[in-house]
Amino acid sequence: MRTIIKNGIIVNDSAAFHGDILIEDGIIQAISTHFDLPDAEYIDASGKYVLPGAVDVHTHMDLQAGAHRAVDDFYTGTVAAACGGTTSIVDHMAFGPKGCSLWHQVEEYHRLADGKAVIDYGFHGVLQHVNEQVLEEMKEISEKEGITSFKAYLTYDFKLSDQELFQVFQKAKEYGIVIPIHCENDGVVTYLRSWYRQQGHTSAKYHPLSRPSGCEAEAVSRMLHLAALAGDAPIYIVHLSTAAGLSEIRKAHALHQKCFGVETCTQYLTRTDACYEDPRQGLKFIMSPPLRKQADCDALWGGLQDGDIDVVATDHCPFNFATQKQFGAQDFTACPNGAPGVEERLPILYSEGVAKGKLSICDLVRLLCTTPSKMYGLYPQKGVIQPNADADIVILDPKGHRTLMHDSLHSAVDYTCYEGMELQGSIDLVLSHGRVIVRNNEFLGQPGDGLYLKRSHSILAQ
Ligand code: URP
Ligand code: ZN
Ligand code: ZN
C-alpha cells in the first residue's frame, strides 16, 4: 500500500522544508515537492510539522525494583509512548539474580516484551558484577542480539567499583560497545540517607538533600576520567540533572575528550525540588537523581542549546501514587524510586522548548530523534525522514493546544508529574512502519506490532 503525506513541513535535525513524503511497505520511498499518484492514500499535513518518530533511549518497562514492580508493562508503556509521539524505545533492564549471567536478563526481557510492545523496542544490557565471563558475554550478546550497550550503576545494590568499571571500559572500547552510566557518589548518598533517617528527617523534602548535586558532579567527573584513561572508551551519562554535573561535561569537551554522550530528561528541565515541599504530593517525584533547583533547569536548557547535552530521554519508571509511593509516606528511603513521563516528553519539549523559543524545531528533532538513534545504533533506520528510513512519523499541529491531565494519558500509572501544564502544540497522527497507530490521542495499534531492534554500533564506538 502507498501513502502520501502531503504539504507538511518536513523536519530533520539539519533542516525544515515543505514537501510530500511517499511511503510504501512501511518505508519512506521518496521525498518530493509534489507527489500525485492515483492509487495512494493521502494524509493532509498542511500547516503541520512532520517529524521523525521520537526515540526514547531510557525507559524501564515492567521493572522489578526490590519489592516493587513498575506498573507499565511493554504493552501499556509502549501505548503511552506511541500516544506521545515516541515510536521506538531502548529499555533498561532490571537487575537479575545476584551473580547471574548477562544472558539471564536478555532472555527475561524477551519474555516480557515480545508479542506485547506496540512500537519497536530494543534493550540495554545491565552489568551487576564483572569477571572474564561477563566481559566475554558483552561481546557475544552484542554480536548475537544487537544489544550494543550495557548499563553500569554507581549506586544501588549492584553498583560497580572503579576497578570493575575500568575493565568494562577497556573492553567496551575494544568491542565497540557503549556504557550508559548512572552517576551518583554512592558513599555520600548512602551515608546521608541513613543520617537523615536517624535524625527523624524522613519526609520527601529530604530526598534531594540526601543526594546533593556534588554527588552527581563527582561521579560524572570520575567516569569521564576513567573513560579517558581507558583510551576514550565510549560512555554515555544518563539523566544528567545538575549545573555542577554539566560543568564537568563542559570541561571534558574543552579538553577534546571524544566518545561520550550526555542525556538529560524532561523532568530535570521542567520541574524543581519545590515539588518535594508538600510531604504527600512530594512522593510522586521521588526519583534518582532528584529534582533540583531552577538554576539547574536553566543550565540544562543551556546545555541543550550549546550541544553539551546530546539527548532528552524520560527515565520512565512509573509506580502508583495511591499504593506503591505510599511506602515512602513515613520514610522517603522506603519509597520506590522513579516516575512516569514517556508520553509527556515530546509534547512538553515542543511546548516548553520550541514554542517558548528555547529550541528550534530542528533542535527538537536532533535531541529526541536523530541523536538518540545515532547514540544507540539505530540511525539511519530511525531518527530521520529520508528515503529507506522506517516510516515512523509524527504529525504535530503547532496551533494545537492542550492541558496535560492524567485522565487523557495512556500509561497504567495513576498520576502525571505535569498535571495541569498548559501546552502549545498537539499531536494529530503517529505512524509506525507507515501505519497510523495514533489519531487524535486514540491508540489504534495492536499488541505485538512492535519489532525487536537488533542495534548496530553507536556513533560513540566507531
Ligand atoms: O529513580 C529512578 N530513576 N529509577 C529508575 C532507575 C534509574 O536510576 O534509572
Ligand atoms: Zn538511573
Ligand atoms: Zn533509569
Q: What percent of residues adopt helix (DSSP H or I)?
A: 25-40%
The beta-strand count equals 19
Poorly predicted ranges (pLDDT <50, ≥5 residues)? Answer: none
Please tell me the overall pLDDT.
Answer: 98
Biggest sheet architecture: 9 strands, mixed
Helix segment count? 12
| Heteromolecules bound | N-(aminocarbonyl)-beta-alanine, zinc ion
- Using the alpha-carbon principal axes, give the shape: globular
CA(first)-CA(last) distance? 37 Å
Strand content: 15-25%
Question: For the CA atoms, what is the radius of gyration?
Answer: 21 Å
SS-based class: alpha/beta
Task: Please explain how this structure is put together.
- There is one protein chain.
- With 462 residues, this protein is an alpha/beta fold.
- Helices cover 30% and strands 23% of the residues.
- It has 12 helices and 19 strands.
- Strands 1, 2, 3, 4, 5, 16, 17, 18 and 19 form a 9-stranded mixed β-sheet that branches. It has an 8-stranded parallel β-sheet with strand order 6-9-10-11-12-13-14-15.
- The protein is globular and about 70 Å long.
- The site of one zinc ion (ZN) has 3 residues, from loops.
Give me a quick take on this structure:
The protein is an alpha/beta fold and 462 residues long. The protein is 30% helix and 23% strand.
Strands, helices and their partners?
Layout: E1 2-11, E2 16-24, E3 27-32, E4 41-44, E5 49-52, E6 54-59, E7 64-65, E8 68-69, H1 76-83, E9 86-92, H2 102-113, E10 120-126, H3 132-145, E11 150-153, H4 162-175, E12 179-182, H5 186-198, H6 206-209, H7 213-229, E13 235-237, H8 243-254, E14 260-265, H9 266-270, H10 294-306, E15 311-313, H11 345-355, H12 361-375, E16 393-403, E17 422-432, E18 435-439, E19 442-443
Parallel strand pairs: 1-4, 1-5, 6-9, 9-10, 10-11, 11-12, 12-13, 13-14, 14-15
Antiparallel strand pairs: 1-2, 2-3, 5-16, 7-8, 16-17, 17-18, 18-19
